[in-house]
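RETRY 2/3 - previous attempt timed out on the joint model. Re-submitting the same 404-residue input unchanged.
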Amino acid sequence: KGEDNHVPRDPRLLRLTGAHPFNAEAPLSLLYDTGFLTPAAIHFVRNHGPVPKVQDEEILNWEISIEGMVQNPMVLTLRDLISEFTQYTVPITLVCAGNRRKEQNMVKKGAGFNWGAAGISNSLWTGAMLGDVIRKAKPHRKARFVWMEGADNPANGAYGTCVRLPWVLDPERSIMLAYKQNGCLLEPDHGKPLRVVIPGVIGGRSVKWLKKLIVAETPSTNWYHYFDNKVLPTMVTPEEAKANKEWWKDERYTVYNLNIQSIIVYPENRELMQFKDINSESNETYPVRGFAYNGGGIRVGRVEISLDRGKSWRLAEIDYPEDKYRDAGIFELFGGEVNVCERMSYLCWCFWKIDVKKIELKNAKDIVVRAMDENMCVQPRDMYWNVTSMLNNWWYRVAVQSEE
Ligand code: MTE
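RETRY 2/3 succeeded.
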């Protein structure tokens, strides 16, 4: 143990597992209060094994290979990536597929450890577009996937997975090879010196400490691609999932795009509220606040809260700080191949707010929230129990508790 002694860590992060590997999220209110950009120090961390040790002198000489179904296999150093490819800086939200797993484990334990609702963070990532690099390698006409592999060595071999090749080549998807987070070189926990960042897709596909890119016709055969980041049918129990590996090899259950989600930050669950002086004449309000996000670049269209468990709903106001970045032209892509202003995808979280009369809260048992996206996909009322407990997006609920 102690393999990660070289990694600096912020004491405010809440550890979710034992000493090793390191998995952590920030307190929800700290994450929200920090605003649109999350500092690296409190960005959630999901590691499957020890963090590779990379000295500062080695950063620019870090090598990645691009191989498989390409006409021009290559080995590139980070120096080459920076000097030979257009560099971009893009705000991107990463989310762990296990976000909110704690709620499911309370109902019926699945296979994974507890995440609260803060397995999400948003940063400005800087680097080359993966699509530019893959294009230069000239993928074969029949190629469909890009496999990615890291330099770490967790229990079941190097961490690896894949993403669809057409997405990699699509400017709207903004899939990056990033070496900077919020203007600084990557921290060890977040992939120092180089990682993949895939917006709108579960964090598990954004491979850290990147070493290898393999262009292929079929999905990755890496252990972590098979046995992680899948939503198996609800009747598959932990015992059945262990006994029958066929479930895991079925690519239909692999999750890529995130689903629509909204979280209440204020009030906190069971936050003690002062209702003593509140009567039916009182106009005093409580600022109910939270955030929402979605996958696949699709905008969150509306956020609604209910004080009567879904009998009636009221609309919250949404703020998309990402639009300001878009207006500032920070989304420049693919060296001018597309008109930058025409890029429409939404890659970041948004914030919602609604002021509610305290007298109404006093009479309510809880507050629930749900979001709907532009495609009219709405968060479900009920839990979809699944053995890995991933993409947990049923209505988010906080209990209202009075101080008396
Ligand atoms: N890449 C490697 N090489 N090893 C890992 O353990 N974890 C994945 C992904 N990339 C992982 C990895 C998972 S499950 C998530 S959610 C994200 O990294 C988390 O990224 P972060 O720790 O920078 O927040």
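The two ends are 48 Å apart (CA to CA). Closing ticket.
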